[in-house]
Amino acid sequence: MSFFLYFICVYQIFFVTLRPNTILILTIMDLQELEKQYEAAKKALQEVGKQIADLFLAAGEKFETEAEEGKPAQPAEPVQPEKTAAPQPAPQPVAFPDLEKLLAKLDTLLQANEKLQATVDAQKQDLETLRKNQEETVKSLEEENDSKQDRLENIIQTVQEDRYRKDKLKLINRCIFQSEMLRKTIYEYPDITKDMTLEEKEAFLLKQLNSVVIGYDSMLADEGAVVTHFAAVGEKMDKENQEAVGARETGDEALNGTVAEVISPGYVWTLPYILKAKVNESGEEIKRYKFLMQTEKIIAYKFVKQS
User: Fold this and answer.
1) In b/e form, how buried is each residue of 171-195, taking b as 16+ CB within 10 angstroms?
2) For residue 178, what pLDDT is reported?
3) Which residues fall within 8 angstroms of residue 200, CB to CB, at 6 or more apart?
4) Reduced 3-state DSSP string for the chain
5) Phi/psi of residue 290, each to 5°?
6) Quick check: 299 pLDDT over 80?
7) Between vectors from CA 283 to CA 281 and to CA 286, what angle results, nearest 5°?
8) What pTM did the predictor assign?
9) How confident is the model over 212-244, as pLDDT tens digits?
10) Integer Cα distance of 237 and 39 in angstroms
11) Can you tell me the distance from the alpha carbon of 102 to that of 54, in angstroms, rounded to the nearest whole number?
């Protein structure tokens, strides 16, 4: 009885206070323990049955042996007058103390086995109910997670679209402005320059074109691609970042390979990342975030020996 009270107390504590996953594990463990007890009781029943069978077999062999041996013959006695037979006492039942004990033990084991079987069945039913509840909970959580995932993807998509529109809108508007400036210059050029001299016309065109160049360089700078100069005029040419598109002869050997004139600047694009997060303990950059998009175009001096 104390075992079942203990089991009920443990069952109530674990199934009320613990989380579903822990309860499921403990229920399985309890069920396994009950199954072990059931198997032990079943084995004990088999042992008692075997003992009873052995006891009956021994009793039968004993009776058969006595019947086969019989009793020795008695000498004949003279015939006596018939007498009234005295009443015989009623036969007394043969007592088998060991058999009675085994039967009592068998009855106790059968009762215990029935209780264990009922407990195991109840535990299996509770376990099945808990398993179904767990499946429903998992399914509900999966559906909720899928819904949140879809919502998150929609939010990310919306944010990306908004960010893309804001980033590109500014660039597009500035490009349109520069294009309109060029078109306006082309359209109004005849009227604006009809009273100008040739030199004034050239100066006007150069001014307009230079404004366009400045505008485009400003747009590139906003995107992280900035105008960059390397070796200056008179300095040794930077062969890694500068490209000589022409040569200017000189008789001064000291000027050989130096920059004579800059035709167009270089452009270096820097990605918008935090560089401090990509350096080692010495402060050296681990990963490059600066890219040379265009080399600087120059004219270099070339030494020509005078004859």
Assistant:
1) eeeeeeebeeeeeebeeeeeeeeee
2) 85
3) 193
4) CHHHHHHHHHHHHHHHHCCHHHHHHHHHHHHHHHHHHHHHHHHHHHHHHHHHHHHHHHHHHHHHHHHHHCCCCCCCCCCCCCCCCCCCCCCCCCCCHHHHHHHHHHHHHHHHHHHHHHHHHHHHHHHHHHHHHHHHHHHHHHHHHHHHHHHHHHHHHHHHHHHHHHHHHHHHHHHHHHHHHHHHHHHHHHHHCCCCCHHHHHHHHHHHHHHHHHHHHHHHHHCCEEEECCCCCCCECCCCCEEEEEEEEECCHHHCCEEEEEEECEEEEECCCCHHHHECCCCCECCCCEEEEECEEEEEEEECCCC
5) -115, 130
6) yes
7) 90
8) 0.46
9) 899 899 988 988 889 999 999 999 999 999 999
10) 93
11) 12
Tokens of 74: 């008695």
Record the tokens describing residue 116, joined without a space: 């264990």
Q: Name the one residue in this structure whose structure tokens are 């990306």.
A: 160
